[in-house]
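Possible regression after last week's pipeline update?

I re-ran a chain I had predicted before the update to compare outputs. Posting the input and the new output here so someone can diff against the archived version. Not blocking, just want to make sure nothing changed silently.
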Amino acid sequence: MTILVTGATGFVGAAVVRKLVRRGFEVRVLVRPNSDRSNIEGLDVDEAIGDLADRVSLESAAKGCVALFHVAADYRLWTREPQQMFATNVDGTRNVLRAAADAGATRIVYTSSVAVLGLRAEGEPADEETPVAFADMIGPYKQSKFRAEEEVRRLVADEGLPAVIVNPSMPAGPGDVKPTPTGRMIVEAASGRVPAYVDSGLNVVHVDDVATGHLLAFEGGEIGERYVLGGDDMSLREILGTVTAAAGRRPPRFRVPHGLVLPVAYAAETWSRLSGGKEPFVTVDGVRMARKRMFFSSAKARRVLGYDPGPAGDALGDAVTWFRENGYCS
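New output (post-update):
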């Protein structure tokens, strides 16, 4: 049984590949010619060179594969080219899912995100059924992932696509090579460069638990259904405190209002645009999202799939250890 995995060199995708290889599956990974392969180095996998925008390469990669884990996504909270993000996350999803279906895949796991789910008032945990609309999506990342999940659901309903959807929360742990926006926050805090915090909250989960959840959805998820793969709800103060404790640093002591951070985010984005530099550490969309506590329940995945994540503190501690051992932290 050969399984195709997209996003295999990334944070979550590599964790999924490692789980599949350990389980004895034959794994084919879709990679670009210039992809950083350090996350899958030494793993017994078959490489297929291709791109989500190249349908011919996708057809070749999917040939002979009975299943697909589509984990790849453009995950950034700021971009100069929102259209490219939509092309990757929406059009690219449609391309690879159709290629897999045409090749005869009988099982597809699509990696969505809790970013597309609704939020409840007063920080109560949301779930798969919490009401939400496209108008609630902040920024091109959330908007593109919302449209991508809509497209997956349409393909299931209209074309019988055998897809199950998983919605990971905020993964942390080893292997965040890029790093992701979450990883960048951990690196900055572990390096002692986060002196203050805003009143916000996130759901934190170990990346290996997210990978396990993918396999559980593959084995027992219902076609067309979605499952939150989360961990523990934590305030931003708790997250930063856990990270700095693991790094032997002092925790941030001061809480600042969102309104004071927003002008800094606008200035940082303006500088990045003018200088042609990398994504700013503080983004306008990030500050806007931080106004709400993004807490989520994994009760459905626990009940239906047998999903059982470990403590979020372990995820953050493992992330700090990996970042320090690999030279990300000062």
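Follow-up from reviewer: compared with the archived run. The mean pLDDT is 93. Marking as no regression found.
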